[in-house]
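Below sits our specimen:

——
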Amino acid sequence: MVGNIVDVIIGSHAYQPPGRLKNIVQYHPFPDALRDVKLPDDLVIDPYNGSKDYTAVATEECYKPCGEHKILALASGDFSPTTLSYLEQGRPTVNCKPSPYDLIRMSYGISKMNFGGHASFLMQGGYDHLIFPFETPEVKDIQVSMAKEAFKAHFGEYPKGAWAPEAGIDLQTLETFANNGIEFTVLAPWQAHGIKKIESENWEYVGSAIDPGKTYKCSLPNGKSIAIFFFDEPLARKIAHNYCGIYSSSDNFLGHIKNTRQNGLTVTYNDLETWGHHWGLHKGVDSVKTVSETLLALYDGKEIDGTIYKLTTFSKYLKEHPPEYEVSIKGWTSWSCHRNGSDHGLGRWGDHIRTDCDCGDVWDSKWRSNLRYAHEFLNKETEKIFFHKVGPDYFIDPKQALKEYVLVLCGKEGLKDFLKKHAKPGVKNFEKMYKLLEMQKFSMLMNTSCGWFHGNLKRIEPIMNMVAANSALRILKEILPRDRGQDIEGRFIELLSQVHVDFTSADNVFREAIAANPNYYGNGKPKSFLATAPVVAA
């Protein structure tokens, strides 16, 4: 006899730093950009560890097989827009037809058919993989808008849900989601604070003990609201680390789902790269096969001990089960700055208060805070130039122009027509407009979260951020009077010199990264462009 029905959402987040390609983090000179001259597909050179395109590895081991085994058409999740653009351009070259990019797009359409018009895909909340609470309201809004337009460019419609990078949120981030038409997001249970029945005035503190078996309404200061799902942390941890041999068989995987919940809803959220890349045949584990078989069984409705376990999507479940409870959230939290039951706020990415964070195997996160301070200094300088001092002289609306610039980045609009459309009457200096847009693009890109994620600076992730920062500096120095530009550059490098980790100072890493990755100056020809401030010994 069949009793309860348990709805199951298997969620995932697909992101790789954008291809490790120089032409993503380096300035493309205006004459070449206007003529659509393509820069070489050279990898960013890591002077310490050598260069490797890990996105190509993840595509071969994960994205391609997950598409071929129907995982992308059944599991819910989000794809980074920069990763999608990288794949769309045929990078890497993977021997399969349809291509990995086409598999992803086809999976989106199939998921809509599978779930009654409720696609399984969310959008990554920002165009770049930034930690939202650190960003200004303008940048938050621009990033969400760019991500939304990129999603439409790839899939033909706007998304209903969004996953904030690293689930890094505050109330302002959730407000920005709601202002951009986002209906729901997904958080970790320790990001909850309190709950109450809707219409009730009696709040109850729950914290990590929140029941993830239902949806919640989060009322926001701007008068709007957003629905929040919380994932089942014990099950998600097993999926992430192959605990209890969860990938040994689909029956074992289904057994762990059954042990997690016998009624209501169960949600998991993990890196998509877990399947095939982190846990794959190279480790003697066929996670792709197991997950595929599990999803197919759940899609058909799997009866276990009298309970039916049925696969669904976030938007489908939300429509069928509107929230009955309201939740308040803990701002300045994430899903991955949390260790041994202890929440570290956003210390992993340079929170100036939580320098006690030991995530990423570090004993002191003060270096992360100092690095964040250096980035914030340069961000403020570029934002003053773009939004207030120079940008308004060229653009009808600088903020709106930057939002829509994503259409150029996605290849959906030509650069020349775009600049004409956004130029103030009488403005003919389209090169200056282009430089302003590129400067602010790099100023956002340099804050990519993985530059702080690990335990040291001599890795490809912080090096890519430094190359992007140098691109922003290069343009800034061309826009401002020479003395002012050099002053800003000198102050930025001075702040980097105060970042010390493992007997290394960030200014020296910056110099070595730039020396290994000289800028392009027309027709794809590199030319050294080194910062001028003196090297400070570590």
In short: The longest strand covers residues 5-14. Residues 526-538 have pLDDT under 50 and may be disordered.
